[in-house]
Design brief:
single chain; 351 residues; mainly alpha; two-stranded antiparallel sheet; globular
């Protein structure tokens, strides 16, 4: 396998493995909070978290059994992975010329509304209600798809979880990755919701051409306002990682935000990656154990970590056997090797 395809395979492996790790406790973390998540992991003898989460007797109903250790042989469908597959499909069709209207049409054609949440669902509803004639006739008709971002969740994490692939296919081109991530994000998000997506994409594009994750992060920061909340979240996560500290300061700073807000989760992503640049299990394990949006953060950290020239331990990939669950129109599963080859081909065309 050539080096580019191998990197894309690692990125998919990292994203799916991190997502599956966090998926088991996503609902539990959001509904019960950090203290009870820690209590469960302690009772399960799973701290520090370095393997898929065990299902113990009397486990809470909110734990997702099909994502627990020993209870799956393929990855469970998840919206995080759906958006990555959609990004690949859109790039295959539109390449670097992707526009927000293309994202809108793809959602209506390929994305079940039942697999959208918060900002995406609000944007989808407006798109379907107000943009039906625009979609059917293929003409603007005075409808601006970016108006769909006028919703109460437009600074939550949705755009950030959609951004990874734009960085994968643009190694050494963080400006292009940032542009593509922004084009996608602006269908449903504004402000820090967009900046979180830009950071993830530009960071991913910078990692293959920088010697450290931190140097790549510096490159990514050039594409968001220095005085934005997203920049402050990155700075906080970075400071705590450098000091070898835990997440207390992040909880104190952002504890009043929604567990699916961009800022609190972005700070956790930066903290986890910079603390464990050489240990994949520690990077995804610590960010999931920290709580909030566990599957999203596990997926983002896993993918970014994997863009380094470092192998992911097979203990993380073997349980799901290269079979990736999706929930898109007409499709229930994807093959790891196929996705890797297609993503590499998009990267070659874009370059």
């Amino acid at each position: 396998m050539d080096p580019l395809t191998a990197r894309m395979k690692r990125a998919w492996e990292g994203r799916v493995s991190g997502c599956m790790l966090g998926k088991a406790v996503e609902l539990y973390s959001m509904t019960q909070g950090q203290a009870l998540l820690t209590a469960y992991l302690t009772k399960a003898d799973a701290l520090p978290l370095r393997d898929y989460i065990p299902l113990i007797p009397d486990a809470p109903d909110a734990l997702l059994k099909p994502a627990c250790r020993g209870h799956f042989d393929k990855s469970a469908p998840d919206d995080d992975i759906n958006y990555s597959v959609l990004a690949l499909e859109m790039l295959e069709t539109h390449g670097r010329e992707l526009q927000t209207t293309d994202v809108a049409r793809t959602w209506l054609n390929r994305l079940p509304i039942g697999m959208t949440f918060t900002a995406e669902r609000a944007a989808y509803r407006k798109l379907a209600m107000d943009g039906a004639e625009w979609f059917a006739l293929g003409a603007p008709l005075g409808f601006d798809v970016t108006d769909c971002a006028d919703n109460p969740h437009n600074e939550w994490i949705g755009a950030q979880i959609r951004a990874d692939v734009y960085g994968w296919v643009a190694p050494g081109q963080p400006d292009l990755a940032a542009k593509l991530a922004r084009v996608d994000a602006e269908l449903s998000h504004r402000g820090n919701g967009v900046y979180g997506a830009v950071i993830v994409a530009a960071w991913g594009a910078s990692i293959p051409t920088h010697s450290t994750l931190e140097a790549a992060l510096d490159s990514a920061l050039e594409f968001i306002p220095k005085d934005s909340g997203a920049a402050e979240a990155v700075a906080l996560g970075r400071r705590l990682a450098k000091a070898g500290e835990g997440t207390r300061a992040i909880i104190d700073a952002y504890g009043e935000l929604s567990p699916v807000h961009t800022l609190n989760n972005l700070a956790l992503v930066v903290w986890a990656l910079l603390r464990a640049p050489d240990d994949f299990g520690a990077a995804i394990g610590d960010v999931v154990a920290a709580g909030w949006d566990t599957d999203c953060n596990g997926a983002t950290v896993g993918a970014l970590w994997a863009l380094q020239d470092k192998a992911i331990p097979k203990a993380w990939t073997r349980p799901w056997n290269g079979c990736i669950g999706v929930s898109l129109a007409g499709r229930e599963a994807a093959d790891l090797d196929d996705l890797a080859e297609r993503t590499a081909e998009v990267a070659r065309r874009i370059e």
